[in-house]
Design goal:
Rossmann fold, binds glutamine, methyltransferase, N5-glutamine_MTase, HemK-like, SAM-dependent_MTases_sf, EC 2.1.1.297
Length: 285
Amino acid sequence: MSASVSQRKDLLVREALSILQQAGVEDASREAYLLLEWVLKKDRLAMLSLLEVGAEDAARYRHVVQRRAKREPFAFITGEQGFWTLDLSVSPETLIPRGDSEALIEALLECGPERNKELSFLDLGTGTGCLLLAALAEYPRAMGVGVDIAEGAVRLARHNAQRNGLGERARFMVGSWAEGITGPFDVILSNPPYIERDVVAQLMPEVEHYEPHRALDGGDDGLEAYRLLCQELPRLLSATGLAIFELGIGQEEAVTQLAESQGLRKLRCHTDLGGVPRALVLARS
Ligand code: GLN
């Protein structure tokens, strides 16, 4: 078909669908549609009544479909990901926020302090800032610090704070875990790297080839970051403070033991939507 004339939307989407399916993209039909919606900057309703796509837009669409067919994550193509109540910008400098991590915010709301108190939050390995910013959005008088070892992540997190009207209450800094941080904090959040090193190479192509391994690789047993984090808790947590850590599958017992060896106890472990124990809540014993 000539590239200079407009093209029928249904044929274009069908072509994309078959390319994405062949590439092994899981939810190919939804993504074929959503990528077109994104290219055209139209909402769902406007899309429904659309019959033709202009030649230039069709070419742009084919280009992003090719990128997605190489298994580049959808969120890196659009630069956007929703998390909790927030719209966040994402980049290859950080993990893409996952729905599973929202379990940490649910756990915070369930076990955490009163919503209207003046509180201090800390997020270690903040990435896009998703956990800290979602927590601050729920606690209108809290202030928070987010730390990440990647400068690009810190820049992105600052941008996300501004974008969501939380810039006044969130500070982001470059650092290795809690080095140089003093506290005390009422809530410490972290989604550390927790995948066993050997397993990182077996993740879905979207994750393995595009997301930063530094944010995934938890060392030989997947627990390296938790060892460091648990050691820091006694010095950083306030007397009544809570630490809420994201867990990988099957890590609840091992991480609880690491915390117990530092004088902490498990308050509860909140499951994600798939029923996986995901958000471990710790307090001083
Ligand atoms: N949940 C991520 C994944 O399975 C891993 C995140 C992490 O290591 N913290 O890809």
